């Protein structure tokens, strides 16, 4: 059962040994300043560096405030957060990355918004300290994703967010093997709100999201919350079929009026390659949905815990 008034902070950790010594004091100071009970749940997502050792040292220094969940492999950021949700005890649950790009000092503002009656508090990074290409790509992806999913989120990439216990319970009951937590929470929220938060350049360690991994994440987001890509494939197929039929009629009439032709071979080849590209893209989109079905029907555990450290 959740503890009234308790704030749970869930932090996924993957190879963050350089950031953790800087995160601990700032996080503790921000939480102590709220003058309310709290717990910090660190989820070690298969780190291969000294992250787990540092977490254990922090746990020994704060055994009543800190809990550690240690995975037996790398299951991904969102599955790490799901594990934190499953084990959290607070009425209010905050998610935070360990890289300090989102200041932990923003947590009291999020808690205040939830106390005002909002069930989901999203955040929008201000003055982002990311490369221009990444910021531009993020704006494009946010716009496209909102149109496809029907959601209204201005910053899908910021994981500093707050949730009431009832929203977290619904997310836990969803039991999806792949999901995007901010979008899922927005789907169930009754009174969501977004607030601006600060954003810092990563000073320690390296980003764990490669370009390919970001693409994968956005595929999961779009296919997990909308059938629009499948419907778009159907409409494209119908349009291409209609255009192909009209082109056949044109060639037939031209043959009857002008006679057989030897020209236009390369034009036909270009058209053929274009249609092949569309076909391969459509097959890929369908494959994304089939892959999600395959992942769900296998019923494999979303994550596997090797060990836990808890004062209870």
From TrEMBL:
Keywords: Cell membrane, Glycosyltransferase, Lipopolysaccharide biosynthesis, Membrane, Transferase, Transmembrane, Transmembrane helix
The keyword Magnesium is assigned to this record: no
Membrane-spanning parts: 232-253, 265-290
Database matches in InterPro entries: Glyco_trans_2-like (IPR001173), Glycosyltransferase_2 (IPR050256), Nucleotide-diphossugar_trans (IPR029044)
UniProt xrefs under Pfam families: Glycos_transf_2
Annotated Glycosyltransferase 2-like domain residues: 8-168
GO molecular function, one term: undecaprenyl-phosphate 4-deoxy-4-formamido-L-arabinose transferase activity
UniProt GO BP: lipopolysaccharide biosynthetic process
GO CC, any one term: plasma membrane
Protein name, as recorded: Undecaprenyl-phosphate 4-deoxy-4-formamido-L-arabinose transferase
Protein species of origin: Aminivibrio pyruvatiphilus
């Amino acid at each position: 059962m959740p503890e009234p008034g308790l704030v749970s902070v869930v932090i996924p950790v993957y190879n963050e040994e350089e950031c953790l010594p800087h995160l601990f004091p700032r996080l503790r100071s921000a939480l102590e300043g709220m003058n309310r009970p709290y717990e910090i749940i660190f989820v070690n997502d298969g780190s291969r560096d000294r992250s787990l050792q540092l977490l254990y040292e922090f746990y020994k220094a704060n055994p009543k405030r800190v809990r550690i969940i240690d995975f037996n492999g790398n299951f991904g950021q969102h599955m790490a957060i799901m594990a934190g949700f499953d084990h959290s005890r607070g009425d209010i649950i905050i998610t935070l990355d360990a890289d300090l790009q989102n200041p932990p000092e923003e947590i009291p503002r999020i808690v205040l918004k939830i106390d005002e009656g909002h069930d989901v508090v999203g955040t929008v990074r201000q003055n982002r300290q990311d490369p221009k290409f990444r910021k531009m790509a993020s704006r494009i992806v946010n716009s496209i994703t909102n149109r496809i999913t029907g959601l209204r989120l201005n910053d899908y990439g910021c994981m500093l967010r707050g949730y009431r216990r009832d929203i977290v319970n619904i997310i836990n009951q969803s039991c999806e093997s792949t999901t995007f937590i901010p979008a899922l929470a927005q789907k169930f929220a009754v009174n969501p709100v977004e607030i601006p938060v600060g954003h810092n350049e990563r000073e320690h360690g390296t980003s764990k999201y490669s370009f390919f991994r970001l693409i994968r994440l956005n595929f999961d987001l779009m296919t997990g919350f909308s059938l629009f890509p499948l419907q778009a494939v159907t409409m494209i197929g119908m349009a291409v079929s209609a255009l192909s039929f009209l082109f056949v009629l044109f060639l037939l009439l031209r043959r009857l009026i002008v006679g057989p032709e030897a020209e236009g071979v390369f034009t036909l080849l270009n058209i053929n390659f274009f249609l092949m590209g569309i076909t391969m893209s459509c097959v890929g989109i369908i494959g994304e949905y089939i892959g999600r079905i395959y992942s769900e029907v296998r019923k494999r555990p979303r994550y596997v815990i090797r060990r836990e450290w808890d004062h209870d």
